[in-house]
């Protein structure tokens, strides 16, 4: 029994919104990274689900790409968070406000 | 072997990537590895010469490669051997690494110019499609590859002096070159998958480069903000791609267009997906609503990196916006009838972006930050190109081409202006307008160049910025959007105010206190003067650029499904 495609959309939209809420409310840079991962994985759910729906492999392949890129992004992010910690003594994103927005 | 032949079409990007890797290799050569490495490369080169000879005498190919390919491999092997031989294992090899980076970027530029000339002179030249239509090399790709390469060359040249005394210089150049590779590939991306991957390839090194001054709190803060907004917008972008895929079942741009040609029942999903894509473009081009990282990142980053991101990265962001919206989401009228009027979205963004950028720039006290906001304003001008596509259809190529011309000229004048800031930072002069007082008497050549950049950015006829803005506004008027041109002209008039403040400080005001300029930064001077010369020379030499840009716009504007693989046989 196949699950209708809309259910996947609702699931991924929910995950995306959880990630977005995390970004908007959390101050810890590591939590920020985790929230971004949630949002990227929400996109992955769509890709995999609609790969099945359309019957081609494009979406599944692209989901693999997204995972690899997310890992690369986290690698850079951890590096930046490390120098943030060395310079500001914390990983709170609201500390680094030397320049005004 | 047509696949080998057409891979050469990506030459400009491949040159940048290969040079980035070469820089890392050269830096890793140590005392014990230098001689074996050089000899090994030389032996490989001799073997390749032998292979070329065998292939020539047997009248065909060896190992699937022709004479030319073997000769090319031999040439590269000898070049690597020579460069490795030049490495001083106990020194920093600053000059070698910087020269290799500049040479690689210049080769890439030459390659792009050569292909552009091919397109310009061959009447039936057709775009090269690679890897199952995932990448396309047409005039628009080549024009933006040329922009990326020329900005990279100027930035690498200027970085030689700016990086004096810093650690990790080879890594710096490698990151610049790899980011430039990503930007070149963005210019060639013909599928949402390659767009995303190329965009990340351009972004990830940029994050590290902005935070390159690890002990400088401003640089780290800038890197953090750039990274956080970048990660956020790339997840928006990925989700947008997933919704477009959910609607159409494909990622390749022409396939998306044909899937949508008969309309779609998932209008809401498509609309949200397209809005999210616009968000990703807005981030990359520093336009509203994802512009707020730009002033921070440009202000805190090392000035050559500010130049790099604000010129090359912005141009690369625009080229994918141009391609995605003109190839995949076309014709604009069909989407307007579905209720997804993306032209209207770009009209709003263009007006808000240029107004916000220029008004914010007018209130700044810090020159680098002022240039950052002016860079946002220029993103607004360029957006006119997409915002005018819904009007008189026959004028679409003029106005879209004008956007490309403006980005091309902007690549020189804005890079030059930021490199002047790099020069000023090198001298240790302060950052505000007052600190620039009397600088014209101490450094007349550099300040004359800066004056050219600023007036050209404002649109005065001392540089090619005048012509590109003129064509842009003229194109908007003839496409039926006189009000976009009017907003642009008012904003340009306002921009003259804050650009003139810098010029006045440099030439008119008396220096407050003693101003001693230390050091002779040859590379920085050369880069600033070269950018100024090109900005001025493009004034009489504007016609070839304009012609190329309009042809490039023409090639993407009609539904580009009729281009086939015939570029290099």
Description:
The complex is a heterodimer of chains A (101) and B (569). Helix content of chain A is 77%, strand content 0%. Chain A has 101 residues and is mostly helical. In chain A, helix 1 (5-25) packs antiparallel against helix 2. Chain A starts with a helix and ends in a 13-residue tail after the last helix. By secondary structure, chain B is an all-alpha fold. In chain B, strands 1-2 form a two-stranded antiparallel ribbon. Residues 1-5 and 559-569 of chain B have low confidence and may be disordered. The A-B interface holds A 5, 9, 12, 16, 19, 23, 29, 32-33, 36, 39-40, 42-44, 46-47, 49-50, 53-54, 56, 58-59, 61-62, 65-66, 69, 72-73, 76-77, 79-81, 83-84, 86-88, 93, 96-99, 101 and B 193, 196-197, 200, 204, 207-208, 211, 214-215, 217-218, 220-225, 227-228, 231-232, 234-236, 238-239, 241-243, 245-246, 249-251, 269, 292, 295-296, 299-300.
Element layout with pairings:
The complex is a heterodimer of chains A (101) and B (569).
Chain A: H1 5-25, H2 29-54, H3 58-88
Helix pairs in contact in A: 1-2, 2-3
Chain B: H1 2-7, H2 11-28, H3 34-57, H4 67-86, H5 94-121, E1 128-130, E2 135-137, H6 139-162, H7 169-188, H8 192-210, H9 217-248, H10 253-260, H11 267-285, H12 293-300, H13 303-328, H14 332-338, H15 342-362, H16 367-387, H17 396-427, H18 439-442, H19 444-458, H20 465-478, H21 482-507, H22 522-537, H23 542-556
Antiparallel strand pairs in B: 1-2
Helix pairs in contact in B: 2-5, 2-7, 3-4, 5-6, 5-7, 6-7, 6-13, 6-17, 6-22, 6-23, 7-8, 7-13, 8-9, 8-13, 9-11, 9-12, 10-13, 11-13, 12-13, 12-16, 13-16, 13-17, 15-16, 15-21, 16-17, 16-20, 16-21, 17-19, 17-20, 17-22, 17-23, 19-21, 19-22, 20-21
